[in-house]
Each structure stands twice: as C-alpha cells, then as structure tokens.
C-alpha cells in the first residue's frame, strides 16, 4: 500500500508538469499554459511526503513481522501439535476400553475352555499395552497442559503490548508527515472527500464537454448506435421471413439432431466414473465417539467399509447412517 501511494504521487507529479498544449494567440503562435505555482508546489510536496512515509514505515513493518507475526505463527503451530496429542489420547482411550471389555467378558465366564484361557492370556497382554499407551498420553496432557495455559498468558500479553506500541509509532510517523501537507493550506480537510471532489468537478465538467475532440467522439458513438439499431431491424426481418417459410427439411433435421444426441450420450457414458462400491460389514462391538471424526455405533450395526488397511488393529474409514468417520478395524466382521 505504501508503494502504491508513492507511485500514485509520482503519477500526479507527471500530470501536473507543464505541457505544450495551449490556446492560439492572435498572431497564430502557441501560448504555453502553465500549471498554477501553488498546485505544482503542493504536488511536489505530496511526492516527497509519500516517499518519506514509505521509506520510514517499511522498516517498522518488518519489525512487526519479526516480533508479532512470526511468534504468533509459532504459537499456533504448538496449539495444533497439542490438539493432535489430545486426539491421539482419545483414540488410545477407545483401544483401552475395547480390550478391557474383551478381557472382562472372558473372565466373567463360569466355565472356561482351553481356547478361552489362551485367548484370555493374549487379550490381557493387549490390555496391558493399551493401558500403558493411554496412561502415557493422559499423564502427559495432565502434566503439561496447565504449564501451556500459563505460558499462553505470558506470551499473549507482551505480544499485544508490542503490537500496540508499534501501531502507535507508525501512526505517529504518518501524522507528523501528513501535517506538512495540511500546513500548505491547499487541501480542504474539513469537508467530505467525495463532496469536495464533486464540487471541483462541476467547474471543469462543462469545459471538458465543450472540447472538440469529445464532441466528435459523441457523434461517432451516436452514429455507431444508429447503425447497430438498423442492423438489428434487418436481422429481425430476416428471422421473421425464415420462420414464415415451410419447413420441408424438418425430417433430415430431426435425424441429424437424434444423431448428435446419441453421440453426446455415447461420449457422456465414456466419461462416467466407475460406480462407487463400499463393502458392507457387521460391527461386533459398540463404541461412542470421543473425538472429531470418530463414528458412534452399536453392536450388530451394518456399516459400509470405505477404506481399510491390512492391519486389523488400525483405524478404518466407514459410513454409517450417512456419516463418514473412523472406527477400530477389529470391531467389524466382513460379510
């Protein structure tokens, strides 16, 4: 914005420079029309002020980027990492609940077979691993989240204070240099910008419209519009005559249209994507969503499997009741 403002000032200076256009005197020579001295002086001062503002404020803006914008971006990155850790803790909680329910189910059996005993030993090992994983992330968040909240307060307050003082300095620099333009007395700072522009434009509008060049342009536009109107009337007349003639060739036209439609339908069928296929599966356990993106389901619900991996202990993607989300892969039984 500062560069645009400085460039705009330089363009104004080019416009206000004296030009060789003018009015003819009685002896036929060209008299040069000079730009008013006050206007030329003011626009030169405006150029100097805009360039000075740009060269003074740009280094301050670089300080804002280094002291405010970059630290804030780093802080947002830390927040995203914490959010991912919370999501991972929630997933570990689901794994822990699943293994705990499986172990409890076998332990509650009154009579256990040899297969149950072997399966119980395996499930207890999985439960122990899931418990350690969940406790690790849960204890980590319980320990470090309070510290993060404290650091957040200590971080935000200095950032706001730094940003406030830098804004104050920049506005002060701009006000100090803009006062030099106001002191020239050339600018009307009391009236509205649009109203002031309209008042000055009224004085010059009549002179611009009286220029021979603009008058010739208006006549050319009028002649062009007249020619366009005549062409439109001719086209309408031709269209009316064409519609009044007998349509002896309607049958070939219909055949041609049918052929085009058939060709378009053929091309459309070639461009059609392959149909969506999602294998149905039955859920063997129930689960409640604990994080964004998790599916809530009950045992024996039928779910559409959208994406899966080779590992059944991984999280798969499915669709249930119109909702797409993730769920444990070992919670399903393929049909």
UniProtKB/TrEMBL annotation:
MF (Gene Ontology): lipid binding
Gene source species? Ambispora leptoticha
Instruction: Tell me the ranges covered by the BAR domain, including all copies.
Output: 1-191
Name the residue ranges with Polar residues bias: 226-236, 278-290
TM segments? none
Domain SH3 intervals: 271-335
Q: What is the lineage of its organism?
A: Eukaryota, Fungi, Fungi incertae sedis, Mucoromycota, Glomeromycotina
Q: What is this protein called?
A: 11499_t:CDS:1
Residue segments, region Disordered: 222-294
What's a single GO CC term here?
Rvs161p-Rvs167p complex
């Amino acid at each position: 914005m500062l560069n645009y403002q400085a460039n705009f000032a330089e363009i104004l200076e080019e416009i206000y420079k004296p030009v060789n256009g003018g009015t003819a005197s009685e002896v036929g020579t060209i008299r040069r029309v000079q730009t008013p001295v006050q206007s030329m002086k003011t626009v030169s001062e405006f150029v100097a002020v805009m360039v000075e503002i740009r060269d003074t404020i740009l280094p301050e803006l670089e300080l804002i980027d280094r002291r405010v914008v970059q630290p804030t971006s780093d802080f947002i990155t830390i927040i995203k990492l914490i959010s991912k850790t919370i999501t991972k803790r929630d997933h570990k909680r689901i794994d822990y609940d699943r293994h705990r329910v499986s172990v409890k189910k076998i332990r509650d059996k009154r009579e256990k077979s040899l297969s149950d005993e072997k399966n119980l030993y395996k499930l207890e090992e999985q439960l122990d691993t899931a418990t350690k994983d969940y406790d690790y992330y849960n204890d980590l968040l319980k320990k470090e989240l309070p510290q993060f909240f404290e650091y957040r307060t200590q971080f935000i307050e200095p950032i706001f204070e730094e940003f406030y003082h830098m804004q104050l300095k920049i506005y002060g620099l701009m006000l100090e240099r803009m006062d030099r333009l106001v002191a020239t007395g050339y600018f009307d700072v009391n009236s509205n910008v649009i109203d002031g522009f309209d008042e000055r434009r009224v004085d010059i509008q009549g002179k611009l419209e009286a220029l021979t060049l603009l008058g010739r342009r208006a006549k050319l536009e009028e002649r062009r519009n007249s020619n366009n109107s005549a062409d439109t009337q001719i086209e309408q007349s031709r269209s009316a005559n064409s519609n009044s003639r007998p349509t002896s060739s309607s049958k070939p036209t219909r055949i041609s249209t049918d052929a085009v439609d058939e060709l378009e339908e053929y091309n459309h069928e070639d461009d059609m994507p392959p149909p969506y296929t999602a294998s149905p599966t039955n859920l063997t356990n129930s689960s409640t969503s604990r994080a964004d993106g998790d599916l809530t389901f009950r045992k024996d619900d039928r779910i559409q499997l959208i994406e899966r991996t080779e590992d059944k202990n991984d999280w798969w993607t499915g669709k249930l009741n119109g909702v797409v989300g993730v769920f444990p892969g070992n919670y399903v039984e393929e049909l």
